[in-house]
Amino acid sequence: MGPDAAELALLWGDDANDNMPMTKKAIRLLTSVAVAVFCALVLTVAVSPDADAVQRPNIILIMTDDQSADTLWSMNRVRAHLLNRGTKLTNARFAFPRCCPSRASILRGQYPHNTGLFANENGSGYFRNRGLDRSTVAVWLDRAGYDTALIGKYLNGHDQKYVPPGWDRWFSQGGGNSRTVNDDGEIREYGSGTHMDSVRKREISDYVRLKASTHRPFFLQASFFAPHAPYDHQSAYEGAFANAPFPRPPAYDEADVSDKPAYVRSKPRVSEAKDLEYARDYRDRLRALQTVDESIAEIVGILQNHNELNDTYIVLWTDNGYHMGEHRLSTGKLTPYETDTNFPMIVRGPGIRQGVEDDRLVLNTDLAPTFLAWANVPQQPWTDGRPMEALLDARTDPATWRRYVLLEGRTPDGNGFGMPDYAGVLSQEGEKYIRYASGEQEYYDLRTDPHELESRPEAAPQALKDALEALRTCAGPGCRTAENGPTP
Ligand SMILES: [Ca+2]
Ligand SMILES: [Ca+2]
Asked: What positions does the domain Sulfatase N-terminal occupy (predicted)?
């Protein structure tokens, strides 16, 4: 039991909720775990200026699905509420840009070779059957006294009747965009034609309002389906973005693919019909994203109304990037190319630098450790990622950070376009080396070839290949050592 508003008002005076967000949270945590007989003592300790108060900020992870970096410009409320008020991590990476593996990496702070999860097919069953869902960031934060919620997409191939451990609030369709939703154990059917992201937006706002008004620390994963195919959007946006130019970057319909592996070389040029289809789909993707954009404004407004905004971390990210015609590849993800493996992560919250960009390498494995750090919960010793809280806070900027990330793609359940499994490495400087199971290799220096137009595997530095060897089978602290590279 935590103190209600009246109790806090008694303690602090009427403006308790306005002035003391950090200490207020500390009291919340302490009282929530204390039995009544100790309440007086605990409160005395907590209000003492010397008290070693444990801070419990709220944490909200907003996720889109299959969003590519070239759609972010359309989200005006993201610009106002997150980009201008937070940090844009431009070099944020997915170890494997695929829905289920990426979401599993986020939940456990591990590379796919350590979750073992590379497939979408039955991904959630795998995660459950191997007991992986008994130790996720939701479980850790739940145990630490957080209220935890997942609203929206979870893992692919999810058994809808099943609510995984650690989640206090569960409103999920499972893996796709089904109109059948498990609402805290109760199966709900929504009518045909229901725009499900709008339903999620409503549930997200309701949850944030409830938790913000009770002033109990919460962790929310708000997982939208937008802008995933088939790009379902609100009818209100039907005519929007009609003239938005479809971006055709230099990699689009790549003219010379003689430098590329066979799965790319075998693709024909982008036809006129395909080009029109991509342009139409691109505009529908922008329309679909507007519901997420609206939701972000609502979340921020609600937090502001309840004086919780300054005590809340908000992260916006997606689960994987997306390509539409780049390197001649039809719509999709999974590849190690920049379109798929990179999407800027946007973070705002207490102490975080505002309106700045940071190009240091961060990874989907970093989110769980970062959330633990923000919540002042001890790290799990076996996670591969590292907390970003010091990097994001101008006052504690670390002198050293990782130099390499591992990129690893395996599709035991098939991928439909002939891409062999691969393992690769990307350096902070922008050198990318990929080795496929077919024996083919790719190397790009993104400083001189940012669009990956001319692979030169013979030019790959030995140090990069060595880094890949060290990373390929790394685990836990060993991954962080390998990512840091040899000490000079
Ligand atoms: Ca996805
Ligand atoms: Ca080329």
From this structure: 57-377
